Amino acid sequence: MVELNSRKAAIVGCGFVGSASAFALMQSGLFSEIVLIDVSKQKAQGEALDISHGLPFAKPVQIYAGDYADISDASVIIVTAGAGQKPGETRLDLVKKNIGIFKSVIPEIAKYNKDGIMLIVANPVDVLTYAAAKLSGFPSNRVFGSGTVLDSARLKYLLGEHLGVDPRSVHAFIIGEHGDSEIAAWSSVNVSGVPLSDFCEMRGHYNHNKAMNEIADSVKNSAYEIIEKKGATYYGIAMSVKRICEAIVRDEKSVLPVSSVQKGNYGISDVALSMPAIVGKHGVEALVPIELNESESESLKKSADTLKKVLSEVI
After folding, report:
1. Which of 3, 191, 302, 307 has the fewest CB atoms nearer than 10 Å to its CB?
2. Residues carrying an active site annotation
């Protein structure tokens, strides 16, 4: 049995998201070793070289292109490998292509590393997280996806803009699918403990339903808008990957809406979707039950059903 290096990460897939994540992690100082793996070794080598040239301005870290054998002692394996989302294509359109890629990638990871944490970032993240759990044989706490961490950050950002307040003071979650059936859990939103509607009125906003609908739609359509304008999204998700890795490496036990296989909460099981979870060095330690109204609970079940339908067609 290989002893894991708590300060080593592996990134499988060196496209826009993988390379942006490597860059964010290089700047973070969380890891002392980062191995990049890609179907094109040359691409991985190029990214490693480019990022390494910034090391005189950052903390020491060894970044290099490697093979699957090099991940044997990595504590965190970040999987971004997959086809990108094209303009006009939904996340769920990507399923069949990316399941095929995962059928070759995940068994290779499991062959060399059985004890690390596998963080799935490729889209559609919920379906691929479920597939990775099945293909790897890893315990469910150690296979989870980036889920709605970025969507929730987008929600906090937009609420911060709307209210004229630091988005870090906004506590809000997007739950369910990372995609078209996601739900803004308005019932539990607060700004530093103050219920959202009270804070809105304090800041001179009274038309709550209209504003909430507009903000939720803006969050849901953010990725499509960015893809239409620049072809791909990668900086926001790279920062989300860094945030999740912080929680793991520092054993922060942070509450983050990652995608994990559900086991009966809210009547949902045998599907991966995002709910707030305590994340630490052992991965997903526990799910956090948040307050949902009847409509939100119903929408969450519909989101789960949407994902289950896709799973039934591809797995």
Report:
1. 3
2. 178
- Based on the domain organization, do 164 and 92 belong to the same domain? no
pLDDT (tens, 9 = 90+) of the chain, 315 residues, equals 689 999 999 999 999 999 999 999 999 999 999 999 999 999 999 999 999 999 999 999 999 999 999 999 999 999 999 887 677 776 667 788 899 999 999 999 999 999 999 999 998 999 999 999 999 999 999 999 999 999 999 999 999 999 999 999 999 999 999 988 999 999 999 999 999 999 999 999 888 889 888 999 999 999 889 989 998 899 999 999 999 999 999 999 999 999 999 998 889 999 999 999 999 999 999 999 898 999 999 999 999 999 999 888 887
Domain that holds residue 41: 5-145
**Segment (H or E) for 191:** strand 190-191
The pTM of this model reads 0.94
Neighbours of 194 (CB within 10 A): 13
Q: Six-digit token pair at 84?
A: 């990108």
How far is residue 314 from each of residues 70, 76, 204, 260, 262, measured CA to CA in Å?
30, 27, 49, 18, 19
Alpha carbons 147 and 279: distance in angstroms, whole number: 13
Query: Which amino acid would we find at residue 85?
Result: Q
Q: Which of 145, 161, 196 is the last residue of a domain?
A: 145
| Greatest CA separation for the chain | 60
**Residues 6 or more apart from 37 whose CB is under 8 A from it?**
10, 11, 12, 13, 14, 44, 65, 66, 67, 68, 70, 71
Report the CATH number that the domain containing residue 70 is assigned in CATH.
3.40.50.720
Residue 247 has a CB neighbour count (10 Å cut-off) of: 21
Q: Which of 10, 71, 136, 76 shows the shortest CA–CA distance to 283?
A: 76
Taking a C-beta distance cutoff of 8 angstroms, is the pair 10, 35 a contact?
Answer: yes
